[in-house]
Amino acid sequence: MKLNILAFAVPLFVSFMVLEYVVARRKKLPYFNLHHSIANISVGIAERLMDVWVVGLFYFVYDYIQKHYGLFHIKPNLLLWILLLLCTDFMWYWYHRLAHEINIFWAAHIVHHQSEDFNYTVSARITVLQAFIRTGFWAVLPLLGFPAPMITSILIVHGLYPFFIHTRLVGKLGILEYIFVTPSHHRVHHASNEQYLDKNYGDVFIIWDKLFGTFQKEEDNVEIKYGLTHPIKTYSFLWQHFHFLAELTYAIRRTKGGWNKCKLLFSKPDQIDPAVREIAEERFRIRQSNAPFDKPLNRYVIWQIGLTIALLFIFILFEHFIPLTQQVLISLAIMLTLINCGAIMEQKQWIYYLEFLRLLTLTIGFILVYPAVWVNILLLFAAILLVAYFDTIRVYYLQWVYHRHRSS
């Protein structure tokens, strides 16, 4: 039975997140905000889900380049594994640095820096768009002659390490500070304090930052402020992913001349007028609700995220045995859930329609798995009742979720 053992990364990372939360709570350290953590984990769930669909493509790209254009024919040995790790981290440094310095790359990377918390949940804020861009940089590795199995193996190790540097619980680590990227270094990288901006791009080794002049140590007398210099202040799953693309689009529209428009795509993010954010938010009606969160609403969102994580784990573990149609339906149901959770934290009224779509998706999946006649009749009868009393159910649903009467 061919199980995908990479699925166990999901409970592993979640366990460390819970452990960090427990330790921080016992020490009475305010390092976690419930709704920020949910938003962070939602982004991470989406990235893990999309990896199921695209990771094979990345392997194919590396394999094709190495076999057709590789400069050398490299066979694994200890020295070359170490060399590959160094090359991988070197390419990461330049991808990461350019992702902060070029607007079109920043549009994908900005999601990672949106959280105003700094803990293990922030490490989950990676998008599949970043993965595509990184692959373009790492394509140098098979061009040098490193085979795809070596590259994908080292990327797994290289991808594990950064998770553990997203924490405020670990202080400075002595002599290791001179060689490796530590939590102290990475806290600086995530800071929005002016003296810390655009520093410490390394992923595993800090030597590249020291070599190329982008190193900054964490000062003990400076209180770090995390997040963007211009926070987005929304839990919307979709807006977190695409707000900067919308802002960039509006900024390009306002820029005169084709050459100037093109330059803006490849200029630094600080060349974008901050006022464009308000224009984009107004256009897409992005407003964070000021209504208070209550415990029942929080529980509802937490349960959805918890069940989604469990579903994601099962999906990845058994992906080789799940038919394509069911994979699509599961992926759609998970994405609808993530969008729904963000909208509930924003206390939007249209969540009912997402619930309807999610229910429809799960129903189709259930019919495909268990196509009994009596089940189809029962589901058809339930669908007729739902359509007949659509608006009535909607009112009761919104009252149940938000625990108060809200006008449509």
From TrEMBL:
Protein name: Sterol desaturase family protein
Domain (Fatty acid hydroxylase) ranges: 81-214
GO biological process, one term: lipid biosynthetic process
Lineage: Bacteria, Pseudomonadati, Bacteroidota, Chitinophagia, Chitinophagales
Main location (coarse class): membrane
TM helices/strands, residue ranges: 48-65, 77-95, 137-164, 300-318, 324-343, 350-371, 377-397
Membrane topology: Multi-pass membrane protein
GO cellular component, one term: endomembrane system
Keywords (A to Z) from UniProt: Lipid metabolism, Membrane, Oxidoreductase, Transmembrane, Transmembrane helix
Iron among keywords: no
MF GO annotations: glyceryl-ether monooxygenase activity; iron ion binding
Cell compartments where the protein resides: Endomembrane system
Classification via Pfam families: FA_hydroxylase
